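>> Question from a student workshop board

For tomorrow's exercise we were told to take the sequence and the ligand below, predict the bound structure, and bring the output to class. My setup keeps failing. Could a helper post the expected result so I can at least see what it should look like? The ligand is nicotinamide-adenine-dinucleotide.
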Amino acid sequence: MAAVKVGVIGCGKISGIYLENGATFDDIEIVACSDLVLERAEEQAKAYGVPKACTPEELLADEEVEIVLNLTVPIVHAEVSLAALEAGKHVYTEKPLAVDLEDGRKMMEVAAERDLRIGSAPDTFLGGGLQTCRKIMDEGIIGEPVAVSAFMLSHGPEDWHPNPDFFFQPGAGPMFDMGPYYLTALTTLMGPVRRVAGSARITFPERMITSEPLAGTTITVKTPTHIAGVMDFESGAVGTLVTTFDVWAESQARIDLYGTEGTLSLPDPNFADGPVRLWRSDTGAWKDVPLTHTYTGNTRGIGLADMAQALRSGRQPRASGELGMHVLEVIHAFLDSSERGEHVSVSSTFERPEPLPARSPEGIFGGGV
Ligand SMILES: NC(=O)c1ccc[n+]([C@@H]2O[C@H](COP(=O)([O-])OP(=O)(O)OC[C@H]3O[C@@H](n4cnc5c(N)ncnc54)[C@H](O)[C@@H]3O)[C@@H](O)[C@H]2O)c1
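>> Workshop helper replied:
Here is what the output should look like for this input. Compare the format with yours to find the bug.
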């Protein structure tokens, strides 16, 4: 089947791994690169052998481009994705799907009206670690899911990121920045969330940048930096998720998923590999589980390649816009709940994506599944 032609908008830090991995997937061919800053597009096109560097407008007018890969900063995700949809292109976007809920909904509407597909990062749930967990869950090895607890605990990015101010503005913070990895992992394993409750705070109203080149600059914090949430899944399971930039140290598991027959300890959902650990009531001991799915390492782009294959075979992409929209709504609901002092219902839903085959002679996505 002919590869799907992809054009990139946004040639910043994360674009390198997409361009590098893009060359390894048979399902896609990256044919053009663009950026507001044309030199960035030119540099990346040269570095990764992409035939064309151009402005975003020229890329949208290029009839050859079928999927726009949106690697811009979150605040312009919706604007760039909507322009691509209006130009008749499918879209695969880095996370989050959008910042505003209404913008996300608009993207979904325009795509439906025009019979176009949206795909959304993160795609680490398609990696070997979380796909091994999916297989264990689907085989009932820990019984029925009862609850899950997940923790993204850190002291923020101002000691390593060159320009960390945006992490502390509305639409960012730990929940928008890291929440998508955790919520995508949890919902693809456990299904959609029905309602949430949240409590959020700003612990340090001002923060000092210690990384270069802005060391010594003060950031005024304008979004919660510690968010504790409780989720009721449609299945009846109850989840706890804490995301924070306010703690120095931690000593607990990142994600533990509790079933009626045992507990599954998940790997860091920011990465594609393990470790996966399992405790069952019949053995009463923890054991390390060898990964059943071999797709590990820095796999960014696997969701895009899956979407390309889905377009050719007429199925839904696994890292779908519906999933990205649901995750965005849950993120907003945690913050709304904290402000309103009550549970917030989540109206969107999604079909759990098909698991990847463990080993398939027909490639990583299986035979058109
Ligand atoms: N950097 C990472 O480690 C990382 C990891 C995971 C996900 N992401 C996600 O990837 C996306 C990009 O992050 P990044 O770190 O590469 O950011 P970046 O700031 O390094 O790059 C973004 C690029 O987008 C361009 N851009 C901005 N607005 C544009 C517009 N309207 N039209 C065209 N180009 C525009 C900028 O000029 C810049 O070159 C974000 O959504 C982020 O959440 C980044």
